[in-house]
Amino acid sequence: MPEKRLLQAFDQQAAWCQQPSPFGARVLARSRAWLAAQPQPLKVLSALADDPLAAAVALRWLAALHHLALLGREPWAGLWPPARSSWTDEALDGAIATAWTDEQPHLQAALAGPPQTNEVQRSAALLPGLLHIAQRTGWPLALAEIGASAGLNLWCDLYRHDHGEAAWTWGNPAAGLTLRSEWTGSPPPNVPLRILRRAGCDVAPVDLTRPGEDLRLTSFVWPDQPERLSRLRAAMKVAQAHMAQTGVAISPERAADFVRTELARRPAQGAWVLMHSVVWQYIPADEQASIAQQVESAGQAATLNAPVAWLRMEPLKADLRVELRCCLWPGGHDELLALCHPHGAWVQWQMAA
After folding, report:
1. Engineering a disulfide at 272: which of 4, 153, 242, 266 sits with its beta carbon 3.0 to 4.6 angstroms away?
2. Distances (CA, A) of 134 to 85, 149, 231
3. What is residue 319's predicted lDDT score, i.e. its pLDDT?
């Protein structure tokens, strides 16, 4: 039954949140208990997706409540971190019920689309992937990112990467954001990285040039994770500044259509790179097949002067780790570059120096 699947999804997501976000886990647990006793809200949320776990319905709900707090609305603003550090079940239950009765337009908008975390810490793995491609091809890169959200990872080369003296550092020390992760393995290639162009798409992009979109993006980060929130806010400032300078915007379109358009714009000299991170599960199977067919066809026509690369940072099934993989044409050789934490907190580089 869909209602049973939804409650199971809330249970699973609460378990996953327990270590990184105790507050998020608690809100999800109280929300699950409330839903189990509320037939009408349970039915509405159950109808959002056939697979509520894959569609992250619980995370949409959690973000909707956090967004109310960020907007300064009560009781959420006075109850959510950082305003409070302890909570009673009664207070959380009241905030959950009040959201349903008093904030229906807000909830409907927040629940309508998939989460937009745009986790910029994933750039700690994506940037090494781009360095790998630059080393192998010797060409500047034209980046095309699907599921780009607000496009924060399209600017991964503009962040400082400092993973410790024993690991590696890269980028401008005066950059607006410094990324740090627990790095194991050899350092990635230390080669020049030149970006020819940047483009991204999303079915529901976050436009950081519009007022209020920064808060919507922030709502998807768990409120008791101050370091993650700080990284996001710094990354948004970097992206906003460079979007204003370059005119780069995230296109609101299907990934397969975007790939078709971007392949038609491939540079005559330079490497075309399709990249994505923790988005493949949200793309319908027929669209996944279309993307794969388009990239493989382009790869078959790739030359040494105009190579094609497919850089994917996607979860292993039934595992909280993700793989960073790269398939490079000519040749079509697919390599495992790294195993990573879903948010990039640690990276286990698999390639030899």
Report:
1. 266
2. 46, 25, 26
3. 66
Q: Which pLDDT does position 297 carry in this prediction?
A: 98
Cβ-Cβ contacts under 8 Å for 88 (sequence gap 6 or more): none
Integer Cα distance of 112 and 264 in angstroms: 32
Both structure tokens of 222:
């768990």
Rg (CA), the chain: 21
Integer angstrom CA distances of residue 349 from 128, 180, 335: 9, 15, 12
Q: 222 vs 17, 132, 218, 287, CA distance in Å?
A: 9, 32, 9, 30
Residue 332 CA, chain-centre distance (Å), reads 26
- Mean per-residue pLDDT of the chain: 94
For 144-194, what is each residue's pLDDT tens digit?
999 999 999 999 999 999 998 778 999 999 999 999 999 999 999 999 999
Taking the C-alpha atoms of residue 127 and residue 92, their distance in angstroms, rounded to an integer, is 40
Strand partners, 348: 184, 339
C-alpha 328/C-alpha 69 separation (Å) is: 45
Other C-beta atoms lying within 10 Å of the C-beta of residue 163: 22
Distance of alpha carbon 336 from alpha carbon 353, whole angstroms: 14
* Assigned token pair, 176: 């607006």
- The Cα–Cα gap between 347 and 353 comes to 15
E strand or H helix that includes residue 333: strand 333-340
pTM given for the model = 0.89
